[in-house]
Give the backbone structure.
Amino acid sequence: MTTKHIIMVGLLVVAIWPSTFAQSSGPTDPATYETVLIPLDVQLASDPLPGANGSKWVVELQVCNLHDDEVLFNQSGPICPLPGGCETQSGFPALSAGFIGTLERNPPHTGIEGRLQHVQRSHSSLVRFQLRLFDVSRDDVNLGTEIPVVRESDFLMGRTALLAIPVGAESRVALRIYDPSGGGGGEELMVRVYSEFGKDLLWETRVTLTAFVPQFFPEFPPLPGYADLFSLEQLPELAGYERVRIEIEPVNPAMKYWAMASITNNSTQMVTIVSPQ
């Protein structure tokens, strides 16, 4: 897979809330919502993304509301994130009671991977997501790789480590870092690479997240702050190592973030995700 070019889940279908929405303090209050990070953008089965060695990549996102009531669900202020719009009893963007479906929308190119959804906090525990990456050219032998959908309780602070990352010639390695606040401050993080069990620093770099601040409703950013590092296996400092440990540390210790590494096998195109546990 050419992970650099996976174009992931999009700004879904836009629908404007009714004007009465602005008169209600509840649904427009950011404290009403839990921010959920969806790390990859949807890639439709009707338009798979070509990759290395004949691979064809699709990213599927499903969502299910297990609650008996509708659940407020928005992206960037007065925007309905569901294909076909949001026809709800409240008149606000929401998942109807018992809703289950696949979100299908190709994104515009933004240079930022991943999207943010904002889910009514009081009911968010009963809203389920499933994000899966497929190589449809090999779906007879591989049913895809599940990608974590990240809740607020899983956002990170301080130093973290991604363990046992293969960096041999048989794999392609990419690191992605996200700021679920939208990255308005252009936050910086240190990325350091060590041998699998060692303490000696092999390589380090300072990355600045690309910020996205919506013109309207900045309290509901549709995109995270974002940075990526691709082809880590090609770093000369890592030559001769089979596996390494990647440590990430924000310059601002109060920053919340999330990160994952993807490892794609050059022969099988099977993808492994390493995320903080």
